[in-house]
Amino acid sequence: MAVSKTRSVEEMMSLYGAGQRIFAENRPQEIVEKAPLMPGDVQWHLIGHLQTNKVRSILPLVKCIHSVDSERLWEKINEEAEKMNLVADALLQIKIAQEETKFGWDFNELTNLLLSNRHADWKNVNITGVMGMATLTEDEQSVRKEMRQLKFYFDLLKKDYFRNESFSVISMGMSGDYQIALEEGSTMIRIGTMLFE
Predict the structure, then answer these.
(1) What is the DSSP string of 50-85?
(2) Number of separate domains in the chain
(3) What does the DSSP 8-state code read for residue 27?
(4) pLDDT of 127-140, one tens digit each?
(5) Range of the domain at 128
(6) CATH code at position 14
(7) Percent of the chain's residues with pLDDT above 90
């Protein structure tokens, strides 16, 4: 997917003209502002942190929310999607990086929620996979180890909790580390810098 945060509609239309249809934004507000200005067949993905008070504004616009990182947010997306009579695709963001600034579930907290089965009633959210962001570092071995960890988490979740076919996405990798991500099992990469240069 093309990460179009901070990019103008003109820049995005240039990529659109070359065949790009999937665009990702970090901030809900950018999707709200850009979506009406872009063609209707663009598929929008939210990859940044999502606050519960912004859920309602983006739900009708996005194909997938990549950043479900708490029980409260998951429940809120379900609540708003139910009101709108839609099912929202979403990824569970799991914290794999060493950086404190990165968001995401602690894997034990996530499995505790899944074991409790509280999520079973949230039928208006379709969890289609996982998302993770590796530490921003030049140390390729560290990045590889973190990405391998996310693939391991995905496999565990698939085996124990999400046995449906739609649970198939491993979203990891950006312009600087996408090759490692692909080697470690990524099915969806977020490319910004390389596409807009």
Answers:
(1) --GGGHHHHTTTEEEEEEE-SHHHHHHHHHHHHHTT
(2) 1
(3) S
(4) 999 999 998 888 89
(5) 2-196
(6) 3.20.20.10
(7) 85
